[in-house]
Specification:
The protein is an alpha/beta fold. It is 32% helix and 26% strand. It is built from 14 helices and 24 strands. The strands form six sheets. The protein has a four-stranded mixed beta sheet, covered by helices on one side. Strands 2-15-17-16 form a four-stranded mixed beta sheet. A four-stranded mixed beta sheet has the order 4-5-3-14, covered by helices on one side. Helix 1 runs parallel beside helix 7, helix 5 runs parallel beside helix 6 and helix 8 packs parallel to helix 10. The protein is elongated and about 65 Å long. The structure holds uridine-diphosphate-N-acetylglucosamine.
Length: 419
């Protein structure tokens, strides 16, 4: 199993190129199931989760070809299976994103229930309730969500809670439904907007994506298109925090600064000088130690839960005491136990971590438990004194493209070891 060996501390400096957003690429690839003509998707990140969704599409009979520029051409004109099996869904919950497109286009879908998840219960009840409101007959049998419908009907849906993949699933269902669908209390994440723009490119009629009310006029069919996935804001944010924690100076390019406002505000509060331009962000920490910052995660445009672990690591070595409150997922502090093993002074009280910054972290063998927790541990390793060995980095590989190469380019001493 691969591990990352990191020798710290070391100031990061240089330029990192940001990949396409995982959380936009996944719904967009699932959304190709809606179309009857070939589609080219560009800027797809090379990640384990992307490979998983491509395998799922191929199992359904979708033709997928990847050219030498890593552009993906998808042809879903001949779909032979409408089933997402447990073996794939259990490795990636986002497989649930095929549910909406399959029911909308074929009137049937059998998608395995995702089951437990390291960061909390993560139910899909709102995805199911939304499809039922659109007229689908949905049951759960033998661990599968079975959805059937002649043609989905437009309706008015108000989400009980803001859900990103829930909004995406129902948005994709609505584009081929009969009539108008209004999705209220929708997620406003940039990845939802990116999916909507992709669907519009294929001929969908969607208004209001990026706001909490999305209005969709159903169309009979979607055609082909050519679309470029937006940059990954969480990847960009992670490298910026890495530089902030090591007193460094880096520029992330091929990034989208306007999708990272809440994170940039916190980095400025931590003492970093941030400059942005068209497609780039530069952070300069000028050799200084960051100042502790209070964080509260919430749906976009507030501070993203996917950056919470990274800021735990930053606050662990920052000057001062801070609180980090997690409001999205109930069990997303597993990195805290590992950070404590590196000498961090963190106390957990319910969904809040109280962090007293220490002068330095000490290297230790640590274990990744989920995708973003593992990013937090890698960052801690970069700032800690000595050699940190991060185990179970398949979690990192789900969401960060060539993380060790990108970090080495900005001066980190990090290597992948296989044992
Ligand atoms: C997506 C992101 C993930 C991010 C999360 C929150 C993808 C592939 N993943 O996950 O990286 O951390 O948004 O920004 O885009 N909920 C329900 N019922 C439902 C659905 C959700 O109660 O049917 C609850 C969840 O338990 C959670 C909250 O809603 O407490 C938000 O979850 P949601 O936005 O759905 O997360 P994902 O879409 O799974």
């Amino acid at each position: 199993m691969d591990k990352l060996l990191i020798r710290g501390p070391g100031e990061l400096s240089g330029t990192v190129k940001i990949s396409g957003a995982k959380n936009a690429a996944l719904p967009i690839l699932a959304g190709t199931l809606l179309a009857t003509e070939p589609i080219v998707v560009r800027n797809i990140p090379h990640l384990k989760d992307v490979t998983t969704i491509i395998s799922l599409l191929q199992m359904m009979g979708v033709q997928v070809t990847i050219d030498d520029q890593l552009n993906v051409e998808v042809d879903a004109s001949n779909v032979t299976s409408r089933e997402a099996p447990y073996e794939l869904v259990r490795t990636m919950r986002a497989s649930i994103l095929v549910l909406g497109p399959l029911v909308a286009r074929f009137g049937e879908a059998d998608v395995s229930l995702p089951g437990g998840c390291a960061i909390g219960a993560r139910p899909v009840n709102l995805h199911i309730a939304g499809l039922q409101a659109m007229g689908a007959d949905v049951s759960v049998e033998n661990g599968f969500i079975k959805a059937r419908a002649r043609r989905l009907k437009g309706t008015h849906i108000v989400f009980d809670t803001v859900t990103v993949t829930g909004t995406e699933n129902l948005l994709m269902a609505a584009v081929l439904a009969d009539g108008e669908t209004v999705l209220e209390n929708s997620a406003r994440e940039p990845e939802v907007t990116d999916l909507a723009n992709f669907l519009i490119e294929l001929g969908a009629k969607i208004d209001g994506a990026g706001s909490s009310t999305i209005v969709v006029q159903g169309v009979e069919k979607l055609g082909g298109g050519d679309y470029t996935v937006l940059p990954d804001r969480i990847e960009a944010g992670t490298y910026l925090v890495a530089a902030a924690m090591t007193g460094g100076r880096i520029r992330v390019v091929d990034a989208a600064p306007d999708t990272l406002e809440a994170v940039l505000i916190k980095l400025r509060e931590a003492g970093a000088t941030i400059t942005t331009g068209e497609g780039w962000i530069e952070l300069d920490m000028k050799g200084r130690r960051p100042t502790a910052v209070d964080i509260r995660t919430a749906p976009y445009p507030a501070f993203p839960t996917d950056m919470q672990a990274q800021f735990c690591a930053l606050n662990a070595i920052a000057d001062g005491v801070s609180t980090i409150t997690e409001t999205i997922f109930e069990n997303r502090f597993q990195h805290v136990l590992e950070l404590q093993r590196m000498g961090a002074d963190i106390q957990l009280e319910g969904n809040t971590a109280i962090i007293k910054g220490v002068d330095r972290l000490m290297a230790a063998p640590v274990m990744a438990t989920d995708l973003r927790a593992s990013a937090g541990l890698v960052l801690a390793g970069l700032a800690a004194t000595g050699e940190t060995l991060v185990d179970r980095i398949y979690h990192v590989d789900r969401g960060y493209e060539r993380i060790e190469e990108k970090l080495r380019q900005v001066g980190a001493t990090i290597q992948r070891v296989t044992s």
